[in-house]
Structure formats: structure tokens, C-alpha cells
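Reminder: ligand-aware prediction takes two inputs, not one.
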Amino acid sequence: MPIRKLPIAQPFFPKVDVKKIKDYGDFVKEPKSLGELSTKLQRNKYDSWKEYQADIRKIRANAEAYNDAEHGGEFKNPDLVKTARLLVGLVDLRIAMYATEIIQAQKKSDPELVKLRKDYHDQLPWVQCSKCQKRRLIDQQEHEDLQTSHKLEQWVCEDRKGERRGTCDEPDDEEQFRLIATAM
Ligand SMILES: [Zn+2]
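Here is what comes back for the chain with zinc ion:
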């Protein structure tokens, strides 16, 4: 089922009615709805998945800005913040799963999907370990930091901090993520 139809997506689907929620503009300067994102996606207006992921993160940031005191908002609906965070995770996972399907197809040499991987590969937060050569999915922020500091080529599994799968002996993330995705 597409994410936009899942229950966790529903609170973010319509635009916030700023006539009813009068103080919304005090906290959120750039409102964004999942409905808008879906339309944009269907009209093929995104240049990359990274752009889509950035928009989903904007939705989360808005939910935080309005509802979470830690982010300058108020404790209006803390559950909505949790749901927004879950939504971001789910989107990342779906995109990762999509990448995995492409990788599987590449092993079977499906030319159409191989082309897709070529187009999207760089948009996904992959790194290749310099030691064991396995591919790992890392979070978007860490990936951006590595790109900025040009350290993507010197990445080693053991450097992963605070994660359970942290060594070169662990199985490839491609398989890990495929298992998680199938279970959902
Ligand atoms: Zn490694």
C-alpha cells in the first residue's frame, strides 16, 4: 500500500486550515502537506528522491515547530510529532527498499531497472566500506556531512557509532533492509 494511504499519513495529507488554526502561522512559516507532495510526485516534478525526502522532513519540522516545545512550539499535540517522525522513517525505508529491489534486479541483469539504479543510486544515502567493500545505508544527515567533508571514500563499518550492526563481519545492509521491508 502506498504510504499516502496508510493511517499514519492521514494527519499530514490535507493542508492545515490556517483560518481555523489561527496561530499556525506564528510557528510555521512554510506549510507543506503530504497531498501537495503526492501531486508533485505523480506529476513527476521531483528531480531526485533526496528532494522528496527533504520535503517529508519539512513536514516533520513543521509538526515539531507547532507542537513540540523543544523546537519552539507548544505541547499541543506531541503524538503528532511522533507520527511525523515515524512517517520520515517509513519513507526512508521505502526508498531504501526500492534501491534494494533495483540491486536484486541488477544481479539478474534487468536492463530497465539497472538504468533506474544508475539514475537514483547517487540520491540514496549509501556508503561503501573501504575495508570490507559492503554497502551500507546510513542516515541522510550523516551522508550529507560525509559528502561535504569529502570523506565518503574513507568510510569503514567500525566507524559507525551507536549502532548495533557496526562491524565488517555483519551482513550486508541490502539484505537487512530487504528483510525489514518485507516484514512491514
Ligand atoms: Zn566494513
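The longest strand covers residues 126-128. The pocket of zinc ion is lined by residues 129, 131-132, 134, 156-157, 168 (CB under 6 Å). We will return to this case in the review session.
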